[in-house]
Design goal:
By secondary structure, this protein is mainly alpha-helical. The chain has one domain (7-84). It is built from 5 helices and 2 strands. The chain has helices at residues 4-12, 18-22, 24-29, 41-54, 76-84; strands at 33-35, 59-61. A two-stranded parallel ribbon has the order 1-2. Helix 4 (41-54) links the parallel strand 1 (33-35) and strand 2 (59-61).
């Protein structure tokens, strides 16, 4: 098992998700976290990784509504744009 000093060194070198560690105390208090990532494959992978790091049991994912052109809108911006020009 890793000691605390080893774990903190691992987190320090985790620069890709440094923003999570910067907000660690704030995120610890949240009972639910809503993940609204893009609906494409990279966005889905990001949501999975964030849920893994934050705790899947408290993460909820946004599923974008269906679109006429594709199965679902890619992101919130596409939904907003569609709603403005209907």
């Amino acid at each position: 098992m890793f000691g605390t000093s080893v774990m903190s060194r691992c987190y320090t070198h985790d620069t890709k998700y440094q923003y999570l560690w910067n907000c660690k105390e704030y995120l610890k208090k949240a009972s639910r976290i809503i993940l609204a990532t893009d609906g494409d494959l990279p966005g889905q992978a990001l949501a999975e990784e964030l849920a893994r790091r934050l705790g899947k049991e408290r993460c909820w994912r946004v599923k974008w509504p269906k679109s006429y052109e594709v199965n679902h809108f890619k992101d919130a911006n596409k939904v907003r744009y569609q709603c403005l020009y209907i």
